[in-house]
Specification:
Elements lengths: L4 H33 L14 E6 L5 E7 L7 E5 L10 H9 L3 E5 L17 H17 L7 E6 L1 H11 L5 E5 L5 H5 L8 H4 L6 H4 L7 E6 L7 H10 L3 E6 L14 H13 L2
Parallel strand pairs: 3-4, 3-5, 5-6, 6-7, 7-8
Antiparallel strand pairs: 1-2, 2-4
Helix pairs in contact: 3-4
Amino acid sequence: MSRAARPIRWLARAGVSIVLAGCALIVAARLYYPRLLYPAPRSDALAPAEGRLLTLTSRDGVPVHATEFLGPKDAPVVVYFHGNGVAMGDVLWMAREFGQRGLGVVLAEYRGYGLSADSTPWPPSEAGLYEDAEAVLAALASRGIGSDHIALFGESLGSGVAVEMATRGHAASLVLVTPYTSIPDVASRFVFGLPVRMLMRERFDSLAKAPRVVVPALLLHGTEDGVVPYAMGVRLAKALPHARLITVRGGHHNDLFLGEGWQLFDEVVSFIVDKAR
């Protein structure tokens, strides 16, 4: 082999190695990212001591759980979709606050989380979470609690579920807490050098769906949110046809309703009651 050919062959081998390493990294990232998106805590692996446990079945045959707190007759019902790092038992305190203000509340659980951790396949999926939400809303509709009395409440990951359900006509109002534009948009802030939008099957693209949300929306976002930037909440609020954004100065991702934030409960309840039909 000539001396001139040796560098070319070396570069060719190096190129193949780089491509193979890149492919391996992409495959590993695609397999691992669901663990970050769906940590699936089991903090309420037992039925909650409060409320009424609903055990349902989704259209794809997966067991679905929810906890219901009945409100006064004809009161609006908050259907709550929680964030990715908690289970429904962790937000019982939120249900109590809404219940004390005269609303009914249903805490929806996701497949792979809490009570559903051992009876459903892992990891969950975007489509699967939508099926779980549909099962809860269908159960309410079967008892005469239709969209005109429902406020969809989505926090963090749950904001994407709530937006999807709103596009399907399941609500009189929509409340989004620390909402994102899309999951790939959030992921791209933490992962550098990888084609995140190509790797992630999960989209939860609320920004793209926003023009199809015809109900009034209330968004709450903290200016110091280190997980989902405040700018995403601003952008989503502008894209929603009938939205108002409450800016929480100094608020972070998980503390908007703490401390002086307790007054936000009253503002959210006032919005929900006003928009109920």
